[in-house]
Specification:
CATH superfamily of the largest domain: EreA-like (biosynthetic domain)
Helix content: 25-40%
Number of helices: 24
Bound molecules: S-adenosyl-L-homocysteine
Largest sheet: 9 strands, mixed
Structural class: alpha/beta
Distance between the termini: 90 Å
Strand content: 15-25%
Shape: elongated
Number of domains: 2
Length: 669
Amino acid sequence: MPTFKDRRDAMVEMQIMARGIKEERLLSAFHKIPREKFVPGRYHDLSYEDAPLPIEEGQTISQPYIVALMLDAAKIKPTDRVLEVGTGSGYVCALLSLLATDVYGIEWHQSLASIAAARLEAIGCANAHVMHGDGTLGWPDRAPFDAIIVSAGGPEVPHSLLSQLAIGGRLVIPVGAEQRQQELLLIVRTSQDHYERSSLGKVQFVPLVGSEGWAIDGAPVEPRRAGRPIRIGVRETAKLATLIGESCEPFDSVDKVGLESMLARIGNARIVLLGEATHGTAEFYRLRARITEALVARMGFNIVALEADWPDAAAIDRRVRMLDSMPLREPMFSRFPTWMWRNTQFQCFVDWLERRNRCIDDRSKRTSVHGLDIYSLNNSIGAVLDYLDRVDPSAAERAREMYACFTPWERDPSTYGRAVTVGQLEGCERQALGTLRDLLEQRLRYCKDDGDNFFDAARNATVITEAEKYYRAMYRGARESWNLRDRHMFETLLALLEHRGPDARAVVWAHNSHIGNAAATEMAMHGELNLGQLVREKFGDRAYAIGFGTDRGTVAAATNWDGPMEVKVVRPAHPDSYEHLCHETGKKAFFLPLRKPHSLGMRVALLEPRLERAIGVVYRPDTELVSHYFQATLPGQFDEFVWIDETNAVEAMEIPTAVASPDTLPFGL
Ligand code: SAH
């Protein structure tokens, strides 16, 4: 029967050295510390297994190799003072006590802290000190530390720990947006304000709880974000504004700024999401147009997907791809808010796309334009019926009967939802689904001649089924209908990528609140998700989300839903907002990379949740704080942020009064 010593030696050789760790002092420490003394009695026999083991309080003692990896990366020197957060069994502190001058361990659970302290004393580690407390706040009295080892996984890097790192100090910490899946990070403080970060690979640690970690015991597991009001002192604002100023890429003009560095950051992303902080700012449209033009012309993007209605955007698509036009029941973009797409800035982009596509003979390579939204019940019904009239008149008759169910509600579908919800009406769900199913069943037959037209009809039939659900959900609450709408946008985007084939790359234009990751905003607390979150979950690093913000100026918006467009003055941003920080940089405009920041310290500092402003189609400056601000964590929301300090309203174009005929479509002719 091998002794513990034999097993320990074998562990060092097979589990640690064999995986490439060679540092003599480190290996010697592993040879000396008896791991069995740190493992609960019933697991003694397993002490030298290549695995983590359960300890008291539902925690674990880490796998020996992972400990070795962390300590190796932290490059502990004999003169170092080291902090370990999440002392647990005490094993890591014991190893550290042989490697460094002084070791400070913090453990969340009182009982574990006491057991660990007793064990360390028993084996004679006199230079190891264990305290019960919240290690995400560090141990300020004993700071700075030459190295900090965090043995539990947090949602983000605790700011306190960064600030308690000596210059030249190393922090090793598992960080991940999910509780049990993290990336092991090595962060080196290279100067007062600069930190360099590298990844040591994927790991699984128990959660790091506490005020700069995950929420505690039973509380919903969310990274710290909303909830408490945030006050930022003037000094703090100035400091953060300086950090932003130092790590942004300033520019003078939306029309001239070079996009090379942004394109390099976008790299091989399949999906680029371009946001906007309002639905009526000219500069946001112009810059999104420029970025999109570069993505199309230089990087092969071939789908432009808009927060617009499917049939309306399809009319634009037909124009820019030079396909036959189709009549619409209601003139394109004639529904509130008309200025969102019926504006000269967007028109310029459409003109550009048409010119560009004209130069491309192979039709399948032309860039297409689509709408992701759900509000087009009437036009979508018209489009499906028109399509069927052309390809299958008897199916058209059946569909016409089915869709007749919607006739009383087509112009004002929100009343449909109420009537069904209060039980006045049976509803048209069966009819909508039935027609979609009939259409899909005929896919092969209909697709023979023209896949594009079939796809368009199938998407319209899908919009009808989803809109039907949406208008009913509206009466059950904002969350359900919001989620349904954003899921629909996501499904539509996936359908587009599939339709355009494996090389397809898409640019999405939608409000920040749709494209920024909802999980990093207070939306998550209300159970809301969004397009940006779903895209990020599916595409990971191959999605790149760019948020847009502004401090002041003018904006096109209405005072009430369905009200007329007005040009309103945008108030300077709230002092507790991200926008205020950006404004305080004193720069007119800039790009701020957040996924690959120019300074990690800036990114970390911005992780602290703050207010952010969202102006939609309605803007009410007098109640701005309650109606337009929400809490968010900017670097969690976006991969990059575009700042334009002062902005102007879009130039809206006239709305046609009569139903447009095909030859006056698309707009502006
Ligand atoms: N190094 C330890 C790992 C224990 S597991 C070992 O190998 O035994 C991680 C430990 O982190 C748990 O004991 C958990 O209670 C502790 N922990 C989690 N959040 C903490 C926090 N904010 N401060 C201190 N300890 C924390």
